From TrEMBL:
GO MF terms, alphabetically ordered: FMN binding; riboflavin reductase (NADPH) activity
Keyword flag Oxidoreductase: yes
Protein name according to UniProt: Flavin reductase family protein
Residue ranges of the region described as Disordered: 1-21
Taxonomic classification: Bacteria, Pseudomonadati, Pseudomonadota, Alphaproteobacteria, Hyphomicrobiales
Length: 180
């Protein structure tokens, strides 16, 4: 019985690239993910010593309206992991179309990622970057295992929308949005 179910499923999806999680080519997986266009954010928090921490992320997404929840995922190998696990608040800074240099700076490992970066403290005390498209300040709500990443869910405490056009990420490159 089990064999016929497998055969029927295989016949129903002939054009799908078959691949169990173990056999799926990493390159192919990344390429397919890259075909999904996202914005680019810098997630910021504070280290144990009060030092600003931040990294470039495109895994940001909305989760719930009531309560207002968002998520993003953080690589387990990231040096920033301890800070995001310890501090109760973080900010999602949605980059504007002219902030490609910030995208690069916060995606490059460094002990001083905030060098030459203009920012204030938000109402929750975490760094909020200047001249972004918008930002959301969040309280850590939940964390879940996600393979080689950890999924961070935040409850949104405050938002600020500057209305600037966003930076866009598609197939490994940052781009500007063009309206049809
Ligand atoms: C466009 C873009 C999107 C990224 N998205 C993520 C992400 O969702 N999660 C993540 O952990 N790293 C992501 N990265 C990689 C981190 O920004 C990069 O590894 C950074 O150095 C991590 O900071 P850290 O080394 O200070 O922890 C992304 C990089 C770029 C350029």
């Amino acid at each position: 019985m089990q064999r016929s179910i497998e055969a029927a499923e295989g016949a129903a999806m002939p054009s799908v690239q078959q691949g169990s999680p173990r056999t799926l080519e990493a390159r192919q997986f990344r390429d397919v993910l890259g075909s999904f266009t996202t914005g680019v954010v810098v997630v910021t928090t504070l280290g144990e010593d009060g030092r600003p921490i931040g990294l470039t992320v495109n895994s940001f997404n909305s989760v719930s309206l009531d309560p207002p929840l968002i998520l993003w995922s953080l690589a387990l190998k990231s040096p920033s992991l301890a800070a995001f696990r310890q501090h109760a608040y973080f900010a999602i800074n949605i980059l504007a179309e002219d902030q490609e240099p910030l995208c690069r700076q916060f995606a490059t490992p460094s002990s001083d990622k905030f060098a030459n970066i203009r920012f204030d403290r938000g109402v929750t005390g975490v760094p909020v970057l200047h001249a972004t498209a918008a930002y959301l300040e969040c309280r850590a709500f939940a964390r879940y295992p996600g393979g080689d990443h950890e999924i961070h869910v935040g409850e949104v405490m405050a938002v600020h929308d500057h209305g600037a056009a966003p930076l866009v990420f598609h197939r490994g490159s940052v781009r500007r949005l063009i309206q049809h």
